[in-house]
């Protein structure tokens, strides 16, 4: 049984912000001046499983860096938008390339740059420590903080409702 009040059988895609959603909202910096993000392995498992189950997977972030690209590309993300200036424009590009309708997408964001997308998607979701504005429009607020299992929480619920969680290929390695 899902805690999400939306018809999860409609979901065909997951799109995520990175900082504050898939990584904690505190970012350490390397002595070189480059940000170093950490990612949750349980999120990673759920994301690669969703990709194997033919869900369209996307990242739309204002952040940049080869580490972000490599991490999510290795998990099967087909659409990775870095240095996003106006996220809604990249989201519209994602919809066009994926041939999806907004109601078929779960978008997970945590702050003001995510607001426009969250107003149009079928399932806007966020971590428990998202901004007040984002929480006010989210259809689902995870009990997890950003970087600590939000992706796993949401993907697991959707896949369970669609009977895709504990399939034989769920046990194969990444």
The oligomerization state is single chain
Q: How many β-strands, per DSSP?
A: 6
Specify the helix fraction band: 25-40%
Q: Low-confidence spans: pLDDT under 50, at least 5 residues? A: none
Name the CATH superfamily classification.
HAD superfamily/HAD-like
Strand order of the largest sheet: 3-2-1-4-5-6
Fold-level CATH name: Rossmann fold
Mind describing the biggest β-sheet?
6 strands, parallel
The level-1 CATH class? Alpha Beta
Q: Mean pLDDT, nearest integer?
A: 94
Overall geometry: globular
By DSSP (H or I, 4+ residues per run), the number of helices equals 6
The CATH architecture category equals: 3-Layer(aba) Sandwich
- CA-based gyration radius: 15 Å
Class per helix and strand makeup: alpha/beta
What's the number of domains?
Answer: 1
Proportion of residues in extended strands:
5-15%
Cα-to-Cα separation, first versus last residue: 27 Å
Task: Explain briefly what this protein structure is.
By secondary structure, the chain is of the alpha/beta class. The protein has 6 helices and 6 strands; from the N terminus they run E-H-E-H-E-H-E-H-E-H-E-H. It has helices at about 40-50, 65-75, 85-100, 115-120, 130-135, 150-160, and strands at about 15, 55-60, 80, 105-110, 125, 140.
Task: Give structural notes.
Homotetramer. Keywords: Hydrolase, Magnesium, Metal-binding. This is 3-deoxy-D-manno-octulosonate 8-phosphate phosphatase. GO terms for molecular function: hydrolase activity, acting on ester bonds; metal ion binding; N-acylneuraminate cytidylyltransferase activity. Pfam families: Hydrolase_3 (PF08282). Strands 3-2-1-4-5-6 form a six-stranded parallel β-sheet, sandwiched between helices. With 174 residues, it is of the alpha/beta class. The mean pLDDT is 94. 33% of the residues lie in helices and 13% in strands. The radius of gyration is 15 Å and the shape is globular. It contains six helices and six strands; from the N terminus they run βαβαβαβαβαβα. The protein starts with 12 loop residues before the first strand and ends in a 13-residue tail after the last helix. The longest helix has 12 residues. It has a single domain, classed as Rossmann fold (3-Layer(aba) Sandwich), CATH 3.40.50. Helix 1 links the parallel strand 1 and strand 2.
């Amino acid at each position: 049984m899902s805690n999400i009040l939306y018809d999860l059988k409609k979901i065909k895609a997951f799109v995520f912000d990175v900082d504050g959603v898939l990584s904690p909202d505190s970012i350490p910096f390397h002595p070189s001046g480059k940000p170093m993000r950490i990612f949750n392995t349980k999120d990673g498992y759920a994301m690669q499983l969703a990709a194997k189950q033919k869900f369209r997977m996307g990242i739309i972030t204002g952040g940049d860096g080869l580490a972000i690209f490599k991490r999510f590309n290795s998990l099967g993300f087909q659409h990775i938008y870095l240095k996003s200036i106006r996220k809604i424009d990249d989201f519209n590009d994602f919809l066009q390339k994926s041939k999806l309708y907004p109601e078929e997408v779960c978008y997970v964001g945590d702050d003001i740059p995510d607001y426009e997308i969250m107003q149009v998607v079928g399932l806007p979701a966020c971590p428990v420590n998202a901004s007040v504005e984002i929480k006010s429009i989210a259809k689902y607020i995870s009990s997890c903080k950003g970087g600590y299992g939000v992706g796993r929480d949401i993907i697991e619920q959707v896949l369970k409702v669609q009977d895709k969680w504990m399939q034989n290929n769920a046990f194969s390695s990444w």
